[in-house]
Design a protein that fits this description.
Helices cover 55% and strands 9% of the residues. It is of the alpha/beta class. It has a five-stranded mixed beta sheet with strand order 2-1-3-5-4, with helices on one face. The protein folds into three domains: 83 residues, no CATH class; 97 residues, no CATH class; 106 residues, Serine Threonine Protein Phosphatase 5, Tetratricopeptide repeat. It is elongated. Helix 2 runs antiparallel to helix 3 and helix 8 packs antiparallel against helix 9. The protein starts with a helix and ends with a helix.
């Protein structure tokens, strides 16, 4: 009875109090030992129940391997998956949620960013040192650069925010989808151009390695910041010729176009960004502003309503988590 109390009451109390639980189950790991104890005790009690039903101790002993075999067979799918998915066993999700594919977008698959090491190992193996300069590697996976500590003579590794990746200098970018919207992930819209390597489990990407083809996005960002909008437009157009999957580059391109007085191209750029990331309320707010500037009140209201709907859904989801 004590184990039932210790394993269930803390979780039930957290639900009752609407406690804030950050990032998966790491704040309630302390209940796991009690569940393990209950599982072991349940196994023993099941054996005793079988013995009592059979009414024959000798017969019960002979039947015991059958029940043990049934238990092992029940565990086989998880065992096979664990071996097959090495070294990413930590992203296991059971079939009640549909495995990794069912969990993708709904749960944080690679919370401990285990896949970052595999991406780094791929880079070390496949990217050759460049005489006279360091290979610049950036990622939105915090702490990944520690994997490069033995290679700092020819690799410069550090953190760069995912949203800013087009305006920062890098040769290779390791991208993790952790904070991307559900709709973008589940509708197969997260497919970055120039991806050269993917670390995945069951067809679900845990992280990807992107190779840069054009660095005009860096100069474009600086031109936009300096309010040199014609130059920003020209440089963004050059950059986007080699990367049509960077939604934030399209947003900045749209802002530059609008600031240069080109409202229709600006609207088209924001609409492209929305197609890439349809669950971003800020994109719809920006689109509403552009339609208002054009005098298109109907489309402005429609975009504004969509932004409000997305924001309300996000707030409701956050309320449920708390």
């Amino acid at each position: 009875m004590d184990h039932h109390f210790q394993s269930a009451v803390p979780i039930l109390y957290m639900i009752y109090k609407h406690s804030t639980v950050y990032d998966t189950w790491r704040h309630v790991f302390f209940v796991y030992p009690f569940w393990i104890i209950m599982g072991a005790m349940g196994w023993a009690e099941l054996g005793e129940w079988i013995n009592a039903r059979l009414g024959n101790k000798e017969r019960a002993v002979k039947q015991r391997p059958i029940w043990q075999a049934i238990a092992i067979i029940g565990l086989l799918p998880a065992i096979i998956w664990t071996v097959r998915s090495h070294p990413n066993q930590t992203v296991y999700f059971n079939e009640l949620v549909g495995g990794a594919k069912g969990a993708y977008g709904n749960y944080d698959l690679d919370y401990y960013q285990n896949s970052g090491l595999q991406a780094v190992e791929w880079l070390k193996k496949n990217v050759k040192p460049t005489p006279g300069r360091k290979i610049v590697v950036r990622s939105n996976m915090s702490g990944f650069y520690n994997y490069f500590l033995t290679d700092t003579a020819w690799i410069d590794a550090n953190y760069t925010r995912y949203n800013d990746r087009h305006s920062k200098d890098w040769d290779y970018y390791i991208a993790n989808p952790r904070f991307l919207p559900l709709e973008q992930l589940q509708n197969n819209k997260w497919q970055l151009q120039n991806t050269v390597h993917t670390v995945s489990v069951d067809g679900v990407p845990l992280c990807i390695v992107v190779q840069r083809k054009n660095k005009d996005g860096i100069a474009a960002g600086k031109a936009l910041e300096a309010k040199d909008f014609p130059t920003a437009v020209r440089l963004y157009e050059s950059y986007l010729q080699t990367d049509t999957t960077d939604e934030f580059a399209y947003v900045n391109y749209g802002i530059a176009q609008a600031s240069a007085g080109q409202l229709d191209p600006a609207i088209a750029a924001i609409q492209h960004a929305i197609r890439l990331q349809p669950g971003n309320a800020q994109f719809y707010d920006l689109l509403a502003q552009l339609y208002n500037a054009k005098g298109d009140a109907a489309n402005a209201q429609q975009a504004h309503n969509k932004a409000q709907t997305i924001t309300a859904e996000e707030q409701e989801a956050m309320g449920e988590e708390e």
